[in-house]
Design brief:
The complex is a heterodimer of chains A (about 270) and B (about 425). A 3-stranded mixed sheet of chain A has the order 2-1-15, covered by helices on one side. In chain A, strands 3-4-5 form a 3-stranded mixed sheet, with helices on one face. A 3-stranded mixed sheet of chain A has the order 6-7-8, sandwiched between helices. Chain A is an alpha/beta fold. Chain A is built from 8 helices and 15 strands. The radius of gyration of chain A is 17 Å and the shape is globular. The termini of chain A are close together. Chain A has a single domain, classed as L-arginine/glycine Amidinotransferase, Chain A (5-stranded Propeller). With about 425 residues, chain B is α/β, with parallel strands linked by helices. Chain B folds into 3 domains: about 70 residues, LOR/SDH bifunctional enzyme, conserved domain (Alpha-Beta Plaits), CATH 3.30.70; about 80 residues, conserved putative lor/sdh protein from methanococcus maripaludis s2 fold; about 240 residues, putative lor/sdh protein like domains (Rossmann fold, 3-Layer(aba) Sandwich). Chain B is built from 13 helices and 20 strands. A 7-stranded parallel sheet of chain B has the order 17-16-13-12-18-19-20, with helices on both faces. A 5-stranded mixed sheet of chain B has the order 8-9-7-6-11, with no helix packed on it. The longest helix of chain B is centred in the middle third of the chain and has 19 residues. Chain B is elongated. The chains are: A alpha/beta (about 270), B alpha/beta (about 425). Chains A and B meet through helix 4, strand 8 and helix 5 of A and helix 1 of B.
Chain lengths: ~270, ~425
């Protein structure tokens, strides 16, 4: 059974611009955002069978809704994020408090080393991938690798539209990888090719990558992804997955989609 | 050429992720070079790896650009602090915990800058001038009260020897010393170097002088003519020896014997054992070796060639010396200083048939100067080769055979 941390979008909006998607002029339709969020929650709970843990939203923290960036949680241990941008740094304390309140063993990174949680650290059970350069600092990965005793392959993110690893790479439960190769340099692409057989690499077309097709939540054979990604859906279907397209346009204005709105717990 | 360099550390899963490859490629693509100094590879998939990389560039600006480019990939510059300096408490005494030098090029960090230590030699201290931003080695005996001396190891970096570009015997690790190895190609390579160095010497190029430190066995064993020829032909420019080498060399000229043995006949000459004493006495009466040569008393041989060619000779005495000859320095601290003063400008050192002078000279030489140690006793070249330099070649052979073969290789016709 999958447990996911989510945070209702009561205060979600675009109040600053810290990625190429965010435009303050492109205002969020709050009513629509709330509606889309609840729809996503219904799909996750009813169709996917996930258990949701809801955090209390905080006024003035519009991006608290993107819980993927709370930190990383594995084996009862939680490492809260250290955000690169001051705008999101205020979230750190809330996420950390929540982890402590849940009884996790909270381990904290040195201040000044940026790490944006599950947004930049995801993978298969024994191999994880760490996105760096845009947000997280590559130097956090050796530390996290030691804390979690996992191999972490750092991958440089070379396109600022894909500023978190979870915007361009999504490991699936069967060992396949849904990803958008041009978001990585040739070293990163070669490292992924070395790890994952060609038949297991599902390449998302650019138009769908830009619609956040890779920002998907995979629970067992269910994959929840934003609507408007038919090629990705058929790739998934061909491998036996069950796609659940969900409208999430309001959150995409902020540079996030299904995966960004959840954090896998254990 | 002095290159700017910085040590960086890269760790994590840097191999499978190709991060190490990316960092190294970046360094090369930007025009720098690197040495991986230390590499620990994780033993399991989970265990991370660690590499310590020395990044080099032709200018400080390029180095800084390279460091800037590789830093986001996790290559972080090792923490840097100024070296610690302590005041010498009295003349001739280093402060406690003084940094003892090696024979490798060394830099110390002073006021946030890496400063090259001048006069590299092993087993000395380092004196720093914080105002002029200079650093120089200083022997224990020469330190003055109040001198600022480097203490501890912080802010000190030793530059490993670069493998020489020439593809000859000096460019391989030659620490193995054996009498069973063929000598021909080694002597051939030394001859080639001597030809290059002589050309440089004649053009006045720095670092083109050849030093020979030798013992009297050169004369006894029959290497005198070959060495004389090598000096005459300007292949050797500096001679380190004791009292005996010049005494027996001039004995041959004056009496036709060395240590009483008829030089040509090869047998003991009646009262021959007195000849070297009479030689020393004669030179003492004249006042100097130079005067003896210039006045025509000593006409041939090693010392005559040195005087005629203006070779720089340092004669360092020992407690068993007879006489000694005028010019022999009997204060060993002063002798060491005179030898040290003759080292700058040396491009090759030949240490032949003298344990004492070979070891003394070896200790004075920076590792960057190639050296050849020739002795019939394998212990001597082994001791010299153990200084840990690729450029120390050991030959277990008789001094005369070595010098004759070398001279023949260079065109000597006995």
């Amino acid at each position: 059974m999958s447990r996911l941390l989510v945070c209702p979008p009561d205060y979600f909006g675009i109040e600053y611009e810290i990625n190429p998607w965010m435009r303050r002029s492109n205002a969020v339709n709050s009513e629509q955002a709330v509606c889309q969020w609840h729809h996503l929650m219904r799909v996750l709970e009813r169709e996917v069978g996930a258990v949701l843990e809801r955090m209390k939203p905080v006024p003035g923290l519009p991006d608290l809704v993107f819980t993927a960036n709370a930190g990383i949680v594995v084996g009862g241990k939680a490492v809260p994020s250290r955000f690169r941008y001051a705008e999101r740094r205020k979230e750190e304390a809330y996420f950390e408090d929540w982890f402590r309140g849940q009884g996790y063993d909270v381990v904290t990174l040195d201040p000044g080393r940026f790490f944006e949680g599950a947004g930049d650290l995801l993978g298969f059970p024994d191999t994880w991938f760490g996105g760096y350069r845009q947000r997280s600092d590559i130097r956090v990965f050796p530390t996290l690798s030691e804390w979690f005793t996992r191999e972490i392959i750092p991958l440089e993110l070379v396109d600022n539209r894909f500023y978190h690893l979870d915007t361009c790479l999504c490991p699936l439960s069967g060992g396949e990888l849904l990803y958008f190769p041009p978001a990585f340099d040739h070293y990163g692409q070669a490292a992924l090719a070395e790890r994952i057989a060609p038949s297991r690499r599902l390449v998302v077309p650019e138009a769908e990558a830009l619609r956040f097709a890779c920002n998907a939540v995979c629970v067992g054979k269910h994959v929840v992804l934003p609507v408007g990604c038919p090629e990705t859906e058929s790739l998934l279907t061909s491998r036996g997955y069950l796609p659940h397209p969900v409208p999430l346009d309001e959150f995409m204005k902020s540079g996030g989609s299904a995966k960004c709105l959840t954090l896998a717990l254990d | 050429m002095m290159q700017d360099q910085e040590a960086v550390v890269l760790q994590g899963h840097i191999i499978d992720s190709l991060i190490l490859a990316k960092v190294l490629d970046t360094i090369l693509m930007m025009g720098g070079t690197f040495d991986i100094q230390d590499m620990q590879i994780g033993k399991t998939r989970e265990e991370s790896s660690r590499a310590r990389i020395i990044v080099r560039a032709s200018s400080a600006k390029l180095l800084s650009e390279i460091l800037h480019a590789i830093q986001p990939h996790g290559a972080s510059v090792e923490s840097e602090r100024d070296c610690r300096l302590s005041v010498a408490p009295a003349d001739g005494i280093f402060p406690d915990e003084f940094y003892a030098t090696t024979h490798l090029s060394t830099q110390v960090r002073v006021r946030d800058q890496w400063v090259e230590v001048e006069g590299i030699e092993m087993d000395l201290g380092v004196r720093v001038d914080r105002v002029r931003l200079t650093a120089r080695t200083v022997p224990m005996g020469e330190v003055k009260k109040g001198d600022l001396i480097v203490t501890g190891r912080e802010g000190v970096r030793v530059i490993p020897l670069q493998r020489p570009r020439d593809r000859d015997v000096f460019s391989f690790m030659e620490s193995q010393v054996s009498a069973e190895r063929p000598h021909g190609h080694i002597i051939g390579d030394i001859a080639k170097r001597l030809v290059q160095l002589r050309a440089g010497f004649r053009e006045g190029k720095a670092g083109s002088k050849v030093l020979l430190a030798g013992g009297p066995a050169i004369v006894h064993a029959g290497g005198r003519e070959a060495l004389t020829w090598l000096i005459d032909e300007e292949f050797i420019h500096v001679l380190f020896c004791g009292n005996a080498l010049p005494a027996h060399d001039m004995e041959v000229d004056l009496y036709g014997t060395s240590l009483g043995y008829g030089h040509a006949a090869g047998r003991v000459v009646p009262h021959g054992h007195e000849h070297h004493l009479r030689t020393i006495n004669r030179i003492r009466a004249i006042g100097s070796i130079e005067a003896a040569v210039r006045s025509g008393v000593v006409k041939t041989g090693i010392m005559a060639a040195c005087v005629k060619r203006g070779a720089h000779v340092v004669m360092a005495g020992t407690i068993r010396d007879d006489g000694p000859l005028p010019g022999v320095i009997t204060d060993s601290v002063k002798a060491q200083a005179a030898m040290r003063a003759a080292i700058p400008g040396i491009g090759l050192a030949l240490l032949v048939a003298s344990t004492l002078h070979a070891v003394a000279t070896g200790n004075l030489l920076p590792a960057t100067i190639p050296s050849v140690c020739v002795d019939v006793n394998p212990a001597v070249p082994t001791k010299l080769a153990d200084r840990g330099s690729f450029q120390a070649v050991g030959l277990v052979m008789d001094a005369a055979s070595f010098l004759r073969e070398l001279a023949r290789e260079l065109g000597w016709k006995p």
